[in-house]
TrEMBL record:
<keyword id="KW-1015">Disulfide bond</keyword>
<comment type="pathway">
    <text>Porphyrin-containing compound metabolism.</text>
</comment>
<dbReference type="Pfam" id="PF02628">
    <property type="entry name" value="COX15-CtaA"/>
</dbReference>
<keyword id="KW-0479">Metal-binding</keyword>
<keyword id="KW-0560">Oxidoreductase</keyword>
<protein>
    <submittedName>
        <fullName>Heme A synthase</fullName>
    </submittedName>
</protein>
<dbReference type="GO" id="GO:0046872">
    <property type="term" value="F:metal ion binding"/>
</dbReference>
<feature type="transmembrane region" description="Helical">
    <location>
        <begin position="77"/>
        <end position="97"/>
    </location>
</feature>
<keyword id="KW-0472">Membrane</keyword>
<feature type="transmembrane region" description="Helical">
    <location>
        <begin position="274"/>
        <end position="296"/>
    </location>
</feature>
<feature type="transmembrane region" description="Helical">
    <location>
        <begin position="244"/>
        <end position="262"/>
    </location>
</feature>
<dbReference type="GO" id="GO:0016491">
    <property type="term" value="F:oxidoreductase activity"/>
</dbReference>
<dbReference type="GO" id="GO:0006784">
    <property type="term" value="P:heme A biosynthetic process"/>
</dbReference>
<dbReference type="InterPro" id="IPR050450">
    <property type="entry name" value="COX15/CtaA_HemeA_synthase"/>
</dbReference>
<feature type="transmembrane region" description="Helical">
    <location>
        <begin position="165"/>
        <end position="186"/>
    </location>
</feature>
<feature type="transmembrane region" description="Helical">
    <location>
        <begin position="109"/>
        <end position="127"/>
    </location>
</feature>
<dbReference type="GO" id="GO:0016020">
    <property type="term" value="C:membrane"/>
</dbReference>
Length: 345
């Protein structure tokens, strides 16, 4: 049972990374509305309309929604992968519940709740016509699923010896994780508002270090795609503000997460985590710059989203190890006290 649980966890972790990447592929290739309904596609639970009579029936059932089979297939591939992930996580939750007498099942049950919410957000993404707040929430839900699976995977691995960890390093670990989460949210807001191409130069934006920006409309959350809260066309200055905020905060991520990785390099038994964090950070920064300079080619744009997921995994795994070391060190005096007390007696 334990071995099966570990294998399912590893499979779910790999599948979650695939689902996050597929979601980026769908979004960045403008296929988010490739299917106007949910969970099927033009009424098809399996496949998409491709025969002449199927296309005619689909257009009659969904007037004004012309069938674009390539986009529809992208959306359905993403849904199939997400459905498979949901089934694997459901199996993990059932197994954990059956073993609840031996260990807590709440992490698996939490995963099941997040995936259920993700299904609802996936439906709303389509029915609310790619509303940015819903699309960004859907992306964050996918990242949350991935993060919880990382924690579940780490829980199943035997812990090595616990090195001493200082309070400042614990604080830096938590700060690094928080900055990555904020940056992912900002990146999702850029992507869901289609603001990635508004700044085509680097390191400046539109030839300026402080371009004209409309922060108010940029970060008004409750609005439709491409519109202000009042329904007017979203100004280009708002898209500029969205993009520039993401780029500026990348500097914060570089400093904080870079410092965290460097500190880990100097820690006994934590240097491996430091290398992984720094490699993921360097890769993500490089992909972000390349996307601007090369005008957002689809493979690089998808890779940038996947890189964000990998950076989150690297920082989260390092944080988990740092706090695991802290807990282990905190237990040592309590465990050792009875023996020393007996020796004195």
């Amino acid at each position: 049972m334990i071995r099966t649980h570990r294998r399912l966890t590893a499979a779910a972790l790999a599948l979650a990374l695939v689902v996050v990447s597929l979601g980026a592929w769908v979004r960045l290739s403008d296929a988010g509305l490739g299917c106007p309904d949910w969970p099927g596609c033009y009424g098809h639970l399996v496949g998409v309309p491709d025969q002449a009579h199927e296309i005619a029936a689909a257009q009659a059932a969904f007037p004004g929604k012309p069938v674009e089979a390539p986009k529809a297939w992208k959306e359905m591939i993403h849904r199939y992968a997400a459905g498979a992930l949901g089934l694997v996580i459901a199996a993990l939750a059932v197994m954990a519940w059956r073993q609840r007498a031996h260990r807590s099942p709440w992490l698996e049950l939490g995963l099941l709740a997040v995936v259920s919410a993700q299904a609802l957000l996936g439906m709303l993404t389509v029915t609310r016509l790619l509303k940015p707040l819903i699309v960004t929430s859907h992306l964050l839900g996918g990242m949350t699923t991935l993060a919880l699976l990382v924690l579940l995977w780490r829980r199943q691995r035997p812990a090595g010896p616990a090195p001493a960890v200082s309070a400042p390093l614990r604080l830096l670990a938590g700060t690094a994780l928080a900055t990555v989460v904020v940056q992912i949210a900002l990146g999702g807001w850029v992507s869901s508002n289609y603001a990635a191409a508004i700044c085509a130069d680097f390191p400046t934006c539109q030839g300026s270090w402080w371009p004209t920006m409309d922060v108010h409309h940029a970060f008004t959350l409750d609005r439709e795609l491409g519109a202000t809260a009042s329904g007017a066309l979203l100004p280009a200055a708002a898209l500029t503000a969205i993009h520039w905020a993401h780029r500026l905060f990348a500097c914060v991520v570089l400093v904080v997460v870079g410092s965290f990785g460097i500190q880990l390099l100097g820690q006994r038994r934590l240097s491996g985590h430091g290398l992984v964090v720094l490699a993921a950070l360097a890769g993500q920064i490089s992909l972000g710059i390349a996307n601007v300079l090369l005008q957002l080619p689809l493979p690089l744009a998808v890779a940038h989203n996947t890189g964000a997921a990998l950076l989150l995994c690297a920082v989260l795994a390092a944080c988990a190890r740092v706090f695991q070391c802290s807990e282990a060190r905190g237990r040592i005096p309590a465990a050792g006290f009875p023996r020393r007390f007996e020796a004195v007696r």
